[in-house]
Amino acid sequence: MGALIALSAAMPATAEPADDTLVIDDLEMTVRATPPEGHPLDEVLSGWLFREAETRELEADSFQNPGMLYVDRGADIWNTVEGTMGKSCASCHDDAAETMKGIAANYPKWDADAGRPINIELQIDKCRVENMGAEAYKFDHADQKALTTYIKHQSLGKPVALDLAQGELQSWWDRGKEIYYRRTGQLNFACASCHEANSGQYIRADHLSQGQVNGFPTYRLKQADMVSLHNRFRGCIRDTRAEFPKAFSDELMALEVYVTWRGTGLSVETPAVRQ
Fold this sequence. Notes:
The protein has 275 residues and is of the alpha+beta class. The chain is 38% helix and 10% strand. The strands form 5 sheets. The chain has a 3-stranded mixed β-sheet with strand order 10-9-11. It has 11 helices and 11 strands. The model is unreliable at 1-11 (pLDDT under 50). It has helices at residues 2-10, 53-60, 68-78, 89-93, 96-99, 120-132, 142-153, 169-181, 191-195, 229-239, 250-262; strands spanning 23-24, 27-28, 32-33, 44-45, 109-111, 116-118, 202-203, 206-207, 218-220, 225-227, 272-274.
């Protein structure tokens, strides 16, 4: 109860999401979508709608968006030969603008070899180890974020759509849903405490969004850096004063599956810009 009072007392004012249209590189993004069957919300809203006008304008302008520096770096990595097999990403996948188009909109996917879902970061690591003879990236390595951003950017504007019929992905969705609504930490918060029950309200100066992940990796102005999804998950869990799991752990992969599904229909915005 005390935690909920603290949340509401921080700044009880509410504000509507912006009534605005996001266009990036002449592509109109879907920032409002009709939710799939069984979704708890009446409308799926991009986090872009909850940001200040200056931040929204920054994302809309690819020349000004600081996240595009990571896209450029990722393009260099894509064409760089690494590992004992003398290959680059391009050696197998050629022009990413063609071969990676739409790919990120359908991740996480079920990986039969691993017996669990994998995201873009884990798919990159799998390719590096098995096809390039290179080492897997350490979590949040600058090159891992840049290459993930570059690959996801090739799906800009494509609608998020997970195939829960793949393998055992549905059971991981079920687990992710349980985690999303589970209260934890000294503050006794769940993901849903902020991003569902209090979406649209302010906590201090932050306008709480629905917590959609269609723009990750995301450039966060307050950190002046590209932030990966599992970094953000761990940051939120830390803020509840709970012990956070390892990146790419089963718990966080299940959460990624569920939270990604919650953004069904929204356009991939990577690299999004947030405050």
